[in-house]
Structure formats: structure tokens, C-alpha cells
Structure prediction request, 848 residues.
Amino acid sequence: MDVILQNLMNGFQVAFEPINLFWVTLGGILGTIIGMLPGLGPATGVAVLLPMTYAMGPTGALITMCGVYYGAMFGGSRSSILINTPGDGAAIAATFDGYPMAMNGRAEAALAISAIASFIGGMIATVFMIFLATPVARFALKFGPAEYFLLMLMAIAMTSSMNKGNVIKGFLSMFLGLMIAMVGLDPQSGVNRFTFGSLELQSGIDFLTVIIAIYALGEVFKCFKDIREGTKKMQTKFGKIWITREDWRRTWKPILRSTPLGFLIGALPGAGGTMAALMAYNNEKNLSKNPEDFGKGEIIGLAAPEAANNASSVGALIPMLSLGIPGSGTTAVMMGALLMLGLQPGPMLFQNHPDIAWGLIASMVVGNVILAIVNIPMAGALVRVLAIPPKILYPIILGLAFIGTYAISNSVIDFYIMIVFGIVGFFMEKAKIPSAPFILAIIVGNMMEISYRQALVISDGSMGIFVGSPIAITLLALTIGSVIMPIIKSMKKSRQGSSISMK
Amino acid sequence: MSFKKTMTTLIAGTVVTAMLLTGCAGKPAAPAAGEAPAAPEVKYPEKALEFIAPAGAGGGWDTTIRTVAKTLQDTKLVSVPMPVTNKPGGGGGVALAYLEEKKGSDSIVTVYSPPLILINLNGSTPLGYKNTTPLARLIADYACFVVSKDSKYKSITEVMDALKKDPKSVKVGGTSAAGSMDHLQFLKIAKAAGVENVKEIAYISFQDGSGPAQVMGGHVDLLSTGIADAKGLMESGDLVALATTADKRIGEGKIAEIPTCKELGIDATFINWRGLFGAPEMPEHAVKFWQETLKKMSETEEWKNACKSNGWDNTFASGDEFVKFLEQENENSKMLLSEIGMLKQ
Prediction:
């Protein structure tokens, strides 16, 4: 314990050097902006920084890159709340209640709670990381392919069954998403699936393109009539970016509950912020006394995923720092940068370069404070997006959507894919099919399939591997429970309903 | 009105930032193909070059080409900008298609390694090394086979003995896809060790790079990987390397303690070479420039240091030597792939 505190103090000395304070501020603000722009996620942000990092030295580079990473988690939800367009997968959950809040005239509170929840999530997760990095990394090792498959199965089953009213539509959406995830090279045998001879489709359909299409284009299509006739309402008066005492009283517990959840999921290599945020959302919805308020501007539904995705971005650093294994797409890019700077990420990093490792951890504490301070006034300016006349705002959204799509893989084919999915999203909206299961299935579908097949190769074809460990059994039970519970609930309700109508 | 002003600034700000950011991430202006002047005394390179990593940021290809760009810049061997663009997809196939599109261009330089040959032979793409202009082989990396520190296998011979009894008894993990490098390098060694039915050996691919965690957690028995990928965990003692596929001891410290397969009586090696390639039909003056410049670069202190810190062997070869090497590699890979039934004709 003393050793940890001693190291941490040394870390703070590194973090408080003026140049490092500058890097963490720069990284955080850059990350926030990158996070806000659809299509540009933290992975792109860090990749853009790569050439700059040569000049920074390892400590500066690591601090800046991590700043971009959690900065993007702060920023990603800004556009979710204001224009219903998540900047990245991890910010999808923020559209569920964040955008309705903005539509109800509570944009200020939504932006404030998202910054506050992000801050608390990031801070507590950093403390977890200081004291629990090693045990958490060891726990993550227990996850083999079978456990990963079940974890992802649980995440998509929960997301599909949380659909208000109609579980069938939720699962329909999920299966559509899984179908899209099949496009591309078969990861095991290298066979082309649904690529129609196109080399670009071999690598599959990027979920970011689909997110931009469904949300940004979808929003434009949906409001098309209002935009044209000028009847879409604008907000012209803005209040202070803060929350009420009542908001805080209701959200602090969900925030504290969602943080460890996000942290743990982030620490599992490959699971990531999107899953963390959606699971936190589902969890709070299940615990809530008024689950029907979720999706209509319930502040808890925004606070929980925001805390979880920030915590997960901290957790994702654990596999990289303690094992030298990329925990997410973003940390993979960061690892590449570290190797080029002559640093070997992994268990020896803390021994060979304690100043860098602990300097980074301390800088995350500093960075979270700076981001919270910067984000509140920034939100004050951003909220005025709602005052932009739709005839100007929506063309800008369209332009950003195209720029963001092109930035993903510099490929023109993605434009067509985006337009197709924009139309698909429009019809899904018309048919009241929820889009979250669709998108989550596209994000995890490929990994789910890979894990499933990996597990079966390991077990030589026996399904027993999916009940082969305590973790696997627990996950399976939770999955079954999450599907059955809403059905039982709705049956109970309809029975009550029918008995009332009988009278 | 001040409010209107804020609004306009905001919009302008967003658009400009977006353009700046995407500008940085995007590729530079596409080079005009076939614009190469015919004069023999041509000043080259005059404009920005386009360096391509055929995979995402952070992997082996990406690291190699970025290191090349950095070294060329630091040593002032090349003075025009060399921005690196990532063109991931199809195990390198997407970038190959791009090269084909830019046939005759003198400004594209990309990096490849054994998968260039393998993705063609296993049918992932109809394009292959013949659809490029080979410039030079720069480095060699070697494979190693690692187990968890509490594994029951203490040497590669024990692993092979177990496989000889039952080819399904050892679960082998790796990072590349089935039928690509990590898979084949293990099968090549297993075959040389006398294991029959190498086709039946269970190979599990962890393309997200989680292989080391999987072998540490005991989900697979052995990991077939590159030395650099497991270096940190070997140094900390969490993973134990049983053997490398080099023909001699390499590296320093713990890495130098790993025996080679040859020492242990298995007469086979596997080299993960990496080299640079241009677009097909790259103009003669550009090919000449790169062969000379890369040779000079491979002799600089900066490059030697980069090789040392990455654990690469500096194995420069260009011109006919490199082309012959590629042909030889192609034949060897064909044989191995046909043996495991993954060769597409």
C-alpha cells in the first residue's frame, strides 16, 4: 500500500510538470472534439496523433493519447444529446434518453449530467485501476472464447429484450444486425460471404458507417418534412448548464453502480465501451421502478451509460499496461505508438519505467478534472446548436456524416453503404423497430461468431464448453433470465389489464 | 446580434475542425498515374509520397512502414513528405487492389510480409506478389512458440511427442487467420518434427491480439506468435518460450536464452520477412531510387537501432535476389498449404 502511494506521489510529480499538464489538456480537448464528430472515434483520433507522438517522448505521448481516449468518451455523447447522432459506438446509449431530454427542453441538464457522470465514472475507475489493476487483469484471464461468446450473447439478448412493449421487434432487429455482421471474409476459413466479388466488402461493413447512417441520416430523413416546412421547433432560450438537486438525488446511485460494471467490462479485452454503456443502461432500466420512463428523457438512462463508458475506457488500459495486450481498437493503436517509442507495454512497464506508468495514471486523475472543468462551459456554447435553424443545421449534419464516413477507411463504397443503411434505418423507425439491438449486433456479431467457433475448436465440437466454468454458467443464467423476465412481466401486466377490463 | 455571432462562429468552427481532422486522417492528393516523365535524368522524388500500411494502425506492417518513414526523414535520405495511410482489409488484399488501380504510379510505397503470398494461394484474393513491384526486403522477424508458465509442456519436443500420439491433444493458438502465417509456421515445424496428419492439429486464431491472454488463462495450450508480440510477458516470466524458428540464437537477454528448433533436433526454420513494394509497373527511375535509398538506409545507425529495439534482423536484399526469394517462398508455401488442404488453384 505504501509503495503504491509512494509511486502515485511520484506519478503526480510527473503529471504536474507544466509540459505534461499541457499535453493532457490538449489531448482531452482534442478527444472531446473528435468524439463529437460522427465517424471519428478515439481510435482515429489517436491514429491522427501518431506522427506527433515521435516528437513528444514516451510520457507525453502516452498522456496525450490517453487524454484523447477518455476525452472522446466525454465528447461522444454531446452530439447524441443535441442532434441524436452518436459520435462513436460508446455514445449510442446516450441517444436513448439524452435526445428526448433535449427535446423536452432539458438539454442543459442532459449535457451537465453527462459531464458529471463521465467525470465520476472516470475518477472512480482510475482509483480502481491504482489498487485493483493486477487482480482485475488476472480475473480477465479466466475469460476464454466460450465465456466471451456468452458475455456478448448476454449483452445482445438484454438489449433486444429491453424494447418497450415488443420483445419480438427487438429480436428481429438483433437478427438483422447479426446478418449484416456476417458480410465479409469468414474469419476462420477465409471464404467470402455476401461480398458479391467486392474487395471492399471483404473486411465487412464497418459499424461506424451504420451508426452514422442510422442516426445522422435517419434523423435527417425523419425530420425532412418539418425541416422543409420550417415547422421543426427550435430552442431559443438557454439556462445554466447544471442539474437540479432532485436530478442528483436520483442519479448518484446509478452512477456509482454503473462505474464498476463499465470498468470490469472495459478490462476484458475486446468487450469495449459500447457494451459497457448498453449493459449499464439495461441494468438501470431493470432496477427502476418506472422502466416505462426510459427512452422518454429519464435522466438515469443518460447518467448510467455515461459513467460506464468512461469507466470502461480506463479499464481498457489494464490489459495493455499490465499484460501488453490491446484491450480495444484504440489501445491497439496506442500500443503500436509505444513500441515505436521503444517502450514495451506489459508487466515490465511498471518495473522498468515506473515514472511513465505512474505518471500516466496520475495524469488521468488530473485529466478528468480538467475535462470536467472544460466541458461545462463548452456545453454552454454547444447547446446553442439547438438554436440553429433546421435548414442550416441539417445540411451540416449531412456534410459531417459524409466526411465522417470517408474518414473511416478512405473508401467511396462506404458512401453507398451509408445511404442504404440510412434508408433501412428510416423504415425501421417507421415500423417502430428499435435500432440499438441492430447496431450492437453488428458491433459484436463478428466477435461472437469468432468466439463461438474458437470455443468449439477448443472443445473439439462439444457444446459442454459453454457450461464448462462457473463464469460460463453464471453468464448463461443471466442471459436466460434477461430474456424471460420481460416476458413474465408483460404477461403479468396483461393479466392484470385483462382482469380489469373484465369487470 | 451577439447571439447570431456565436452561432456562426460555432458552425464555422465545427466545419473547420472537421475538415482539419479528416484532412489529417485522409490520404494526400492522389498521385496522377502515368505522369512519370520519360527523361532518364529525372529529379525524383519531387512531390509527396504515399506510404501505405495494408493493415490497421499498430500492427507489424504499420510499425515497419512508419519506422521506415521516420528513419528516412531523420537521416534526410528523403526530403519530401511521406505520410502513412492505413488501408486495412482482406489481410492486405484491399491495399493490393488499390496498388493495381494505381498501376504505373511512382509515388506509392507499401510493406508486405509472408501473407502477401499466402492470401493469394489460399484464395482470399486473386492478386499476389506478381501484382506489385518488389523493391527490397528489409528485415526478418522470427516465430516463437510459447506456453503458460505452469504448462505441462517444458520443451517443444514434448509438445511434438504429444502431437505424434494424438494430433488433437495440443490446442494451438495464433494471431493470424487459419491458413496464414502463425498457423503455417507451427505446421511447418510440426511436420519437420515428424508429426503426421498436421491437418488435424486444432488451430485457434485470435485476430484481436488476445492470444497471449488466452494461453495465460489456459484456454489454449500453446501460442504460435512473433517474438515481439510476446516479449513483455516472456520477460516477466508469465509466458515461457519453448523454441524459436530462427536458424541461430537471436536478440539479447531472455530472448537469447530461447533455443532454436534446429538445436532441438527439428530441422526447419521459418522467417517472417518484411519488404517494401511499389505499384505494379513502377517506373524504372523510381525503382532504382528506392533500391539505392533503402540500401543506404539499412546501413545507417538509426535503422540499426530501430531494428535492435524491435528485435528485427537486418536482412537487406533487393533486385533479382529479392524476386528469387519471393519465388522460392511462393513454392514452399504452396507445398505446405496443399498439405493442409487450404491451397486454392
Summary: Confidence is low (pLDDT under 50) at residues 1-8, 10-39 of chain B. Chain B touches chain A through 72 residues (CB under 8 Å). Strands of chain B lie at 50-53, 84-86, 108-112, 133-148, 172-174, 203-205, 222-226, 239-244, 271-278, 313-318. The CA atoms of residues 249 and 257 of chain B lie 8 Å apart.
